[in-house]
Every structure is written in structure tokens, then in C-alpha cells.
Design a protein that fits this description.
By secondary structure, the chain is of the alpha/beta class. It folds into two domains: about 60 residues, Hypothetical PUA domain-like, domain 1 (Ribosomal Protein L25, Chain P); about 160 residues, SPOUT methyltransferase, trefoil knot domain (Alpha/beta knot, 3-Layer(aba) Sandwich), CATH 3.40.1280.10. The chain has six helices and twelve strands. A seven-stranded parallel beta sheet has the order 8-7-6-11-9-12-10, sandwiched between helices. The model has no long low-confidence stretch (mean pLDDT about 90).
Length: about 240
């Protein structure tokens, strides 16, 4: 089933514009009177009928809707953007397919990339959500300040920082059932000792992702997979 994404809707109508509108009308040749299925990224599926088409957008009348709750707890990865942007885009795509709740791009002292195209990452997430038939679009945030990121991430019930220093516990031992969890993943070359100490002072617990040396994006995906497995076994 082909689905479209839109975050523009009200009690009676859903509105498509931009890439979703072009795909619907130019690629699939949908027109007035045709049925379409739209998801809003918040768990709702709309069964609609196209009732108005203009040059740049269309309006679809909602015939019925169905809302689904998230399948798991709130899982977030705070990850340092990689120098090769293709690698962080790969992470965003695969994490969305698996079902991550929130992606935080966290700048650190050793982060090698200073600029990130957030609009491109959002398009990648939308495409991955539709392809994997998931109904919830992850939240996407960027923290250019290390201090601001730490203070904001303190809201999580379980806060973990994966680093390569000694005195860390396996990540599996620090996960809790039913708890909002964030895992912080550093850049190539790891966090600085000062950043690790500051994170610990904000309530983060140090964890290990195993003995292998993982690339940043691989470490993020591994941590997300472990969180998912933990949620399945602790329900």
C-alpha cells in the first residue's frame, strides 16, 4: 500500500504539498475523486478522498482515521555528526527504520563537521518511515552547544554515555524497563576527558558497547538495537 506523509491536517481534511504532492499527482497521477492513505508521523492513518487539487497542493477529505500508540518506550540517541555526511545520513535512515523515537545531533570538541542540513535529514526520515511502514516520525534536534545539550538531555530517566575510557559497564546492565532512555555517542576519537566528567556530573552513566572499535554511526545503531531488545525482554 502506498502511503503519503503530511503534518498538515484538521478534523476533516489532510493537505499535501511539496514532494508528497508531486509524488501523488505527477508520479502516481492521482486526481480528484481518487482515494489515498496518509500518515501524520504521530501514529495516525487517514483514509481519504482527494477533493481539491491546485497548482502546488491538494486537499483530501478524511473518511476515517485510526491511531496507534508507539510500540516501545522513548529511545533517543545523541550522536556526534560525522565528517562524512553520508554516514550520519545512513544512521538517520536505519535508526528511523528500526523505530527510534528521537535523534539528537550533539556537537562536541572533537566533532569534525560544523554544519548539518536538517531539512535533508528530515526528508530521509520521512522516506524511511514510509518505506518501513512505521507510523511515528522521530524527533530531530541539533545542539551546537555541549552545555545546552547536557542540560536538555538531563530530562531523560536513564542517561548513558558510551566512551572508550576504562571503568564502564556493558550497556545491557544499565537499561531499565519502561524508562525514557538516551545514549550519547561521541565522535571519531571519542569524547574528551572533560566532556566525560561533565556528563557524569549531569547524571550520565558510563557504558561500553563491547570490545570492538566501532564507527560513530555503527555505535549509535548498535546502542539502539540493544535498547529495543531490552524493551522486548522486560515487558
Amino acid at each position: 500500500m502506498i502511503v503519503f506523509y503530511s503534518d498538515k491536517f484538521d478534523d476533516r481534511h489532510v493537505y499535501l504539498a511539496d514532494d508528497e504532492f508531486l509524488h501523488c499527482t505527477k508520479v502516481l497521477r492521482k486526481n480528484m475523486g481518487d482515494p489515498i492513505t496518509v500518515i501524520n508521523g504521530r501514529g495516525t492513518i487517514f483514509s481519504c478522498l482527494i477533493t481539491s487539487v491546485s497548482k502546488n497542493s491538494l486537499t483530501a477529505t478524511i473518511l476515517r482515521s485510526e491511531t496507534h500508540e508507539p510500540r516501545h518506550n522513548h529511545f533517543a540517541i545523541a550522536i556526534s555528526p560525522t565528517k562524512n555526511i553520508d554516514r550520519i545520513e545512513w544512521f538517520v535512515e536505519k535508526a528511523t527504520e528500526i523505530g527510534i523515537t528521537e535523534i539528537i545531533l550533539q556537537m562536541t570538541k572533537r566533532t569534525e563537521r560544523s554544519r548539518v542540513k536538517m531539512d535533508r535529514l528530515e526528508k530521509i526520515m520521512i522516506s524511511a518511515m514510509k518505506q518501513s511502514k512505521t507510523l511515528h516520525l522521530p524527533e530531530l534536534h541539533l545542539f551546537e552547544s555541549w552545555k545546552d545539550g547536557l542540560e536538555t538531555l538531563s530530562k531523560f530517566e536513564v542517561k548513558l554515555i558510551a566512551h572508550c575510557e576504562e571503568q564502564t559497564q556493558p550497556i545491557q546492565e544499565e537499561l531499565g524497563a519502561g524508562l525514557h532512555t538516551v545514549v550519547m555517542i561521541g565522535p571519531e576519537g571519542d569524547f574528551t576527558p572533560e566532556e566525560i566528567q561533565q556528563a557524569l556530573a549531569h547524571g550520565f552513566k558510563p557504558v561500553s558497547l563491547g570490545s570492538a572499535r566501532l564507527r560513530t554511526e555503527t555505535a549509535g545503531l548498535y546502542a539502539l538495537t540493544v535498547m529495543h531488545q531490552s524493551s522486548f525482554f522486560t515487558k
